[in-house]
Specification:
By secondary structure, the chain is an alpha/beta fold. The protein has two domains: 204 residues, Rossmann fold, CATH 3.40.50.2000; 174 residues, Glycogen Phosphorylase B (Rossmann fold), CATH 3.40.50.2000. It has 15 helices and 16 strands. β13, α11 and β14 form a beta-alpha-beta unit. α8 packs across α13 and α11 packs across α14. The longest helix is centred in the last third of the chain and has 19 residues. The radius of gyration is 21 Å and the shape is globular.
Length: 384
């Protein structure tokens, strides 16, 4: 499994790092031998059970120009490492300014799978700065065209992949390890858990504008005295705006603590901004559902593809009035919150676990192996 993005530190709490670790762990649980090759690690990060974790060579904090210039060196290093590991497939999390994995897999005639989580050149140009834009687009197109299968997290992103060179694309939304999240105690009308207790709404993740931070703040201003408690699990540029409407902010926490913290909440928030990209498949959504929260979420395409009306309340993205109405309704009705939470947990348990995602990846690997006449897919090269 390959990830060349130095901004994703394996073992970290950032959503992309969590995603990387969950996919690798689920593949390992499926019986695959996982070699994870990553650009950056958190100190003390452990490899997936039964697998190995290795650092990619070179200056991982390189500029875009240096990354582009270093592609041939990285390709040769990957060829050597993969030749010695002898994997049945190379699974890569797509990163900007890199096609070394695609080139190495082609040289070694290894089936090549690409996980696509965002249109990275477009996203960088919109929210940050896209350095070396011509190279970014060229290397993206080369990577997508080389892939035997591209796993995109939503239908809009799958369409983007096809438009940019991918021949075989499959939608594979985010998921959750439901075993991390204990079941909620049964609801009892008038029970001690609810007696005199103010409900709590939670936002999990980095509070950035596109996540709908201003939407949350305005909704809490609309609610006034009817507003429930507001818990922010994460840190980022929107924290002061949320503190101004009474939020408690916990800052960044280790992913292992997320389930415990969400157990303190009743409602999960993911309203997004009015102009949020349509391709999002929010990791937080699946974790809210697994935690048994009643979820209020912006109706992005990637959200509508996975949730059912009984498991979440969908609102127009960036609509504070709709968010305030949904929060007021849920805050006053603990029985409805419980029923929604149970439906959400059942939904992810039945359809959206990392183990299910890993099983699908293994199916694809087996199909590619049969097509190529290869041996059974029990070894996976994961440069992360």
């Amino acid at each position: 499994m390959l990830s060349t993005d130095s901004g994703i530190r394996f073992g970290g709490s950032k959503g992309a790092a969590v995603h990387l670790a969950e996919v690798a762990s689920a593949l390992a649980r499926s019986g695959a031998t996982v070699l994870l090759l990553a650009a950056e690690f958190e100190p003390g990060a452990e490899p997936p059970a039964g697998g190995a974790l290795e650092a990619l060579p070179g200056p991982n904090r390189a500029s875009a120009a240096e990354r582009v210039a270093g592609q041939t060196i990285l390709q040769r290093w990957l060829e050597d490492r993969l030749r010695r590991f002898n994997p049945d497939v190379l699974y890569e999390r797509f990163a900007l300014h890199s096609a070394a994995g695609a080139a190495a897999a082609a040289r070694l005639d290894i089936p090549y799978l690409v996980e696509l989580n965002a249109p990275l050149p477009v996203e960088a140009a919109r929210y940050r700065t896209l350095d070396e834009p011509d190279a970014a687009h060229r290397l993206e197109a080369a990577t997508l065209a080389a892939a035997h299968r591209v796993f995109a997290v939503s239908s809009p992103l799958a369409a983007y992949a096809r438009d940019h060179g991918a021949a075989c694309v499959e939608v594979m939304p985010n998921a959750v390890d439901i075993n991390r999240f204990p079941e909620r105690p049964p609801f009892e009308e008038g029970g001690s858990r609810e007696a005199g207790r103010q409900p709590v709404a939670a936002f999990l993740g980095t509070p950035r504008p596109w996540h709908g931070i201003e939407t949350i703040a305005r909704a809490w201003e609309i609610l006034g005295a009817d507003a429930p408690g507001l818990l922010i699990i994460g840190d980022g540029p929107g924290r002061e705006r949320l503190r101004a409407v009474g939020a408690s902010t916990l800052g960044n926490v280790r992913h292992e603590a997320v389930a415990h913290l969400l157990a303190r909440a009743d409602i999960g928030l993911a309203p997004f901004a009015p102009d949020a990209p349509p391709y999002f498949s929010p990791l937080k959504l699946f974790e809210y559902l697994a935690a048994g929260l009643a979820v209020v979420v912006g109706a992005l395409p990637g959200v509508r593809e996975v949730v059912t009306p009984d498991a979440a309340m969908l609102i127009p993205p960036g609509d504070p009035v709709a968010l305030a109405h949904a929060i007021r309704t849920l805050a006053r009705d603990p029985a409805r919150r419980y029923v929604m939470g149970q439906a959400g947990r059942t939904l992810v348990a039945d359809h959206h676990t990392w183990d299910r995602r890993a099983a699908r990846v293994i199916e694809v690997i087996a199909d590619l192996g049969r097509t190529a006449g290869a041996t059974s897919p029990d070894r996976i090269g994961l440069p992360a």
